[in-house]
Amino acid sequence: MTRQRIRPVILSGGAGSRLWPLSTPERPKQFLALTGARTMLQLTAERVADQGQYDPPLVIGSEAHRETIERQLADIGVAPARLILEPCGRGTAAAAALAALVAGPDELLLLMPSDHLIGEPERLSAAVEAAVPAVREGWLATFGVAATRPETGYGYIRRGEEIAPGVRRAARFVEKPDADLAARMLAEGGHDWNAGIFLFRAADFVDQMRLLAPDILASVEESLGGGIAGDNPVRPNAAAFARCRAESIDRAVMEKAARIAVVPVEMAWSDIGSWDALFEVSARDGDGNAVSGSAALIDGRDCLVRSDGPRVIAIGVEDLIVVATADSVLIVPRGESQRVRDAIERARERG
């Protein structure tokens, strides 16, 4: 059988509010260089650049970020097959439906966030290849990372029986459990973190949306209106798309469909979903500190201190996260950075 190349779908519409103040709605984390010289979007595009395995990507983002997306991809020599510009954010279920309807029905789509870190992308590519036979038979596949701590900020997948070499049935999804449940699942074993990466045949995904989330699919179909054949970028109708129910692909489809596969893969993955997560993957000195930008730390231990604005000097502090930009400063104990999003919402409520 001739090898079928896979069409990456890069989701670039997230706000990244948990990495405030560095990440903002105007410049969310996928457009930031958090772990090196490349931005998260650029790293994502580079890991699916092998033309033997992948076709040029579809990229889904917002009109406000169009120029940034095009510039950052051009800087690394990536020309997307198509850019799809959402008029507003309606979650990953609607974004996946857009991609599946814009793509050819027989295309295999690899849906992936633009703001995750994968230290060993070759292992992801091998896992994708392992999933292809099951996907050709109508399975929707997701990829799981072995849980190593009772993390409450991730979703979990319980592995079921093997359905193909290296591929198992997804027996259960658990979305962001509390600490007690996360600890029990970790002790029990057989659970993977949900990496938020999916592989499916476009027509099969549309069929599952029609069965399990018909209202979302109908709104997306109406927003496209059948007139997108030559459009690049694709711009869904704003009024129709705004009527779409906001939902994740997990809740709309993956948790309900009968034929969901999970491919466990060790690939040095992090969603960089908090300052604590960034600290864990950052290079640190002999005292366990990650210090960057216009920042200095004296007699400190196990801290992340970063400034992209004024000079910041911290003295004698431990287990602290300090992040400064030109107009904002965040100070939070390590281990508490998941609360940043809640703090931002509270600040907005107070004006």
Structure description:
There is one protein chain. The chain has 351 residues and is α/β, with parallel strands linked by helices. The chain folds into 2 domains: 265 residues, Spore Coat Polysaccharide Biosynthesis Protein SpsA, Chain A; 70 residues, no CATH class. It is 30% helix and 28% strand. The strands form 3 sheets. Strands 6-9-7-8-10 form a 5-stranded mixed beta barrel. Strands 12-13-14-15 form a 4-stranded mixed beta sheet. Strand 7 and strand 8 form a beta hairpin. Helix 3 packs across helix 7 and helix 6 crosses helix 7. The termini are far apart. The mean pLDDT is 92.
Sketch the topology as an H/E string, one letter per element.
EHEHEHEEHEEEHEHHHHEEHEEEEH
Number of domains: 2
Overall strand count = 15
Overall pLDDT score: 92
Helix content: 25-40%
Strand order of the largest sheet: 6-9-7-8-10
Contiguous uncertain segments of 5+ residues: none
Please write the CATH class name of the largest domain: Alpha Beta
* Strand-pairing-aware structural class: alpha/beta
Give me the CATH fold name of the largest domain.
Spore Coat Polysaccharide Biosynthesis Protein SpsA, Chain A
- Ends: how far apart? 60 Å
Structure summary:
The protein is α/β, with parallel strands linked by helices and 351 residues long. Helices cover 30% and strands 28% of the residues.
How would you describe this structure in keywords?
4-stranded mixed β-sheet, 351 residues, 11 helices, 2 domains, 5-stranded mixed barrel, Spore Coat Polysaccharide Biosynthesis Protein SpsA, Chain A, 15 strands, alpha/beta
